[in-house]
Design brief:
By secondary structure, the protein is mainly α. It has a domain at 46-72 and 128-258. 52% of the residues lie in helices and 6% in strands. It contains 11 helices and 5 strands, in the order αββαβββααααααααα. The chain has a 3-stranded antiparallel sheet, with no helix packed on it. A two-stranded antiparallel sheet has the order 1-2. α5 (138-154) packs across α9 (215-235). The longest helix has 26 residues, at 170-195. The radius of gyration is 24 Å and the shape is globular. It binds iron/sulfur cluster (SF4). Residues 132-133, 137, 139-140, 239-240, 244, 246-247 line the site of iron/sulfur cluster.
């Protein structure tokens, strides 16, 4: 790479697109003006109330209930066939969904269903904004759940900030330990429920704790426990910023007219007292 190419790479995020020089909105110990990665700054969200929060709690309960109870629904398919309503049977290469039975050569049905789901997601986002992210995405649901557990042990925003800054005492250790134990329990329940979709659920449940389940069941529960614990407990918004493809797609669907929660200079960002004449008019696109 020539010296001029190197210089251009330092100036441009992509050919013809200047790199942003704006500092991160939240404070950080490191300056990362030119970095594509920003170290996570811990966020302490305050408990909020209102209609949309209530809808969000109801959505969370319904979706968790679906996730945990669907494997226990029975569906009679006659003798010799599994009676679990929703089952991914790898051993016999079948996917069962109530009255539907899909064989490997019919996988195009699933492809069609996924395309339909993607179009529905695009439509919902175009009409109502980040509906999926805010109410239905598993990352949101489990993060919400983990934050609620955090509140239960450590209190609301101010108490949590205070606890974070305080010295390690017996009370702090107790609160943190309690929180992590419940987080791990939820993470295990999440991983545990996932394997129920791949084997007969009551059968797995009766053998899992006595060591009688297949090795793959334990490996997958361990992997999903670890990923849930990390993603919902520690990474949270980093998953959305760096790992998830959806914000990239949604960005392509957004224009200046779109209702969107964003942090941009043309809205008066970075936040704080607005200085006249700086960054344009505050709230120009709110
Ligand atoms: S950005 Fe991705 S991971 Fe984050 S809430 Fe939206 S869909 Fe879920």
């Amino acid at each position: 790479m020539s010296e001029s190419d190197k210089k251009r790479n330092r100036r441009e995020a992509a050919p013809g697109i200047k790199k942003s020089r704006w500092k991160a909105v939240t404070t950080s110990t490191k300056s990362n003006t030119d970095s594509l990665y920003k170290t996570r700054t811990k966020i302490f969200p305050k408990r909020i109330q209102g209609t949309f929060r209530r809808i969000k709690w109801i959505a969370l309960i319904i979706m968790l209930a679906i996730y945990y109870f669907v494997p226990f629904i029975r569906w009679d398919r006659g003798p010799g066939a599994p009676d679990q309503a929703v089952l991914i049977d790898f051993v016999n290469a079948r996917f069962y969904f109530f009255f539907i039975e899909i064989w490997p050569q019919e996988v195009y049905y699933i492809t069609g269903l996924l395309i339909f789901a993607a179009i529905a997601l695009f439509l919902a986002s175009a009409l109502f904004g980040r509906l999926w992210c805010g109410f239905a995405c598993p990352q949101t649901i489990w993060t919400d759940l983990f934050i609620e557990v955090e509140r239960l042990f450590e209190g609301d925003r101010n108490a949590r900030i205070k606890l974070e800054k305080s010295k390690w005492t017996a009370s702090k250790i107790l609160k943190k330990t309690g929180k992590h134990i419940v987080w791990i329990f939820i993470a295990m329940a999440t991983g545990g429920a996932w394997i129920l979709y791949f084997h007969d659920a009551p059968d797995v449940l009766s053998h899992f704790f006595t060591g009688g389940s297949p090795l793959t069941a334990y490996v997958f529960v361990a992997m999903l426990t670890a990923s849930t614990y990390l993603l919902a407990g520690f990474m949270r918004e980093q998953v959305c910023i760096y790992m998830c493809p959806w914000p990239r797609i949604q960005a392509a669907m957004t224009d200046v007219e779109a209702l969107n929660v964003t942090y941009r200079s043309d809205r008066g960002e970075p936040r704080g007292p607005h200085k006249k004449g700086r960054h344009g008019k505050v709230g120009a696109i709110v």
